[in-house]
Amino acid sequence: MAAVLALEAPLAKRPRGRPRKTLDERDEGNRRQQLIKVAARLFRRKGFDATSTRDIAAATGMHSGSPFYHFKSKGALLCAVMEEGMRAATLRQTSVLQPLDDPAQALRRLIRSHFDTLLGPGRDFIPVMLYESRSLTARQRAGINKLQREYEAAWMPVLHALAAAGLLRADVNLARLLIFGALNWSVQWFDSKKSASLDDLTDAAMALFVHGEST
Amino acid sequence: MAAVLALEAPLAKRPRGRPRKTLDERDEGNRRQQLIKVAARLFRRKGFDATSTRDIAAATGMHSGSPFYHFKSKGALLCAVMEEGMRAATLRQTSVLQPLDDPAQALRRLIRSHFDTLLGPGRDFIPVMLYESRSLTARQRAGINKLQREYEAAWMPVLHALAAAGLLRADVNLARLLIFGALNWSVQWFDSKKSASLDDLTDAAMALFVHGEST
DNA sequence: CCTACCGATCGGTAGG
DNA sequence: CCTACCGATCGGTAGG
After folding, report:
1. CATH code of A94's domain
2. What total number of domains does chain A contain?
3. What whole-number distance in Å separates Cα of residue A114 and Cα of residue A190?
4. Quick check: is A57 in a domain?
5. Hey, which residues 150-179 in chain B have their CB within 8 Å of chain A?
6. Is residue B67 part of a domain?
7. What angle do CA A138, A143, A145 make, to 5 degrees?
């Protein structure tokens, strides 16, 4: 009898709060990841300041105070979103580089991977990072900047090689800033339901930046 | 006696509120412009949501409710900032185009003027427009978009001419979006105290985008 | 343009 | 992770 009660207790306790996802999805320990994912979507759609921790809690199926069990502040949650985004972006970028590529091919892969990071389905993390860094503390921002520098480091040898071959004009550091700007700005206007694909964007960027006969 | 009182009354009334600028600067009717300018600076530094109407009032030397005498809502003030920015930017751009320019020269002037609009001293209006449009109502955004389309219209014949001459590769519409991205993103990283000048940036952008021997 | 104020909302916490 | 709550702040308004 006691054994039966113990087995059934979790089920009996469940419907205390508001509607929950199925038990399969609860999967204790993943609530933190759920919060990060939900927060990223809301931060992107409405902005950090305009998103309340209550919004995030409700969209995750929690009550208003519960996000603070997982994160010590709203800002810490924002920082976690950005860290998770940079972790995934760096992984994606590393997986795409191939040792035998010539510089133009390498740049093409980097650009295509970056567009994927910015515009691929369900990718809210990096857009949030690009537009909400102002809400980080100085210490948090320093941490994110470090991840960004590591990410950008992979581009520099490629850009230098292109410049040496005469395929990229302009000061390499300014070129890097301008190129990242051109790519990053796409989160403002890209519409996946319109005609251009990520491959189209990559072709256009290569044609615009890389000089010479064809690429 | 009555005449004397009438003449002095405005002076006698002045010190009722908090510290004011000199009488010369008050200049009734310019308070609205002052609000727009102060709001632009604060919106840019802290973001729209993180700036309170009390911040704006205090920085203009008003009390907390007074901005609402000039603007019916905080959002209307934001919209006024953007309209004022676009008005100045379009004026600046129009004044710079010369009928005898070849396409590359024309693009150079457009880019230089755009950097001036984005990064020149005291230019907070357009950066606010670029990063706070999400806070506009749909109707306000439609109005701002119209001004932006008019501004961008001047670029299209230039880009088409460059494409026809083989100096600009890539689809012209995508090129326009990528180029504006490269330029607009500079508000994120440009530091007027560092080495590069607006002319340096213009040179780098031209070298990056415009193909051919030299420009 | 100021004074005095309102209702709403927010981030965060104690205690369980 | 929920309950119940706090202090602070905010956009906006009436009435002058």
Report:
1. 1.10.357.10
2. 1
3. 14
4. no
5. 168-171, 174-175, 177-179
6. no
7. 90
